[in-house]
Design goal:
single chain, about 210 residues, alpha+beta, 2 domains, 4-stranded mixed sheet, two-stranded antiparallel sheet, 8 helices
Length: about 210
Amino acid sequence: MKKSKLIRYSFYPILFCLIPGVFILFSCLPAFSGEAGLASRIKNATQKMDKKNQVEASIPKMKHIIAVNVEDQGGTFFTKARKVEINRFKCSACHNNKSVAIDNAARISHADIQVVHGNKEKSLACNTCHSEKDRDFLVAGEGTKIDFDHVYDMCGQCHFRQKKDWIGGAHGKRVTYWAGERVVENCTSCHNPHSPRFEKQWPKTYSVPLK
């Protein structure tokens, strides 16, 4: 008699836990099924994001950006234009065949430039990066002219690992559009082209060392 009561009293708690468990299991089956699962819905999706209406309608597209002439894994992306940031562009306004009447004009106009770029013993010359024949362009190693807005092509000749990371998104900073068009900083947005190495500095915020 005691044994039957013990079985009966043990049966009810098991049944109490079993019924909700079965109910939860069957209610979750559609989520894990092949057709209704989230992974399958994403895989079978055919409608692409409407960047114009879904993104740019709420976040206006940036001005002064240009399409990068190489593609990343997502296709075409954009970077900030360089020429609009140069105060004395076009360079040919001064660097031309006209005679210069001012003494030390080059030293005066470029007094703020200090070249610390290249070997420790000897910095790079101006014409290493700037076209000697057309001062409104940069120059590649083989003499190909590079537009100032595409300065990453010139920097990437030596800093090719950083350029590869920049294209992939591991180097540099994304300006806007986490959903929609990818717009990133150009090399010279962060680095001074004539002295690109950052000075050592303490972080603005830091954790107090443990004692």
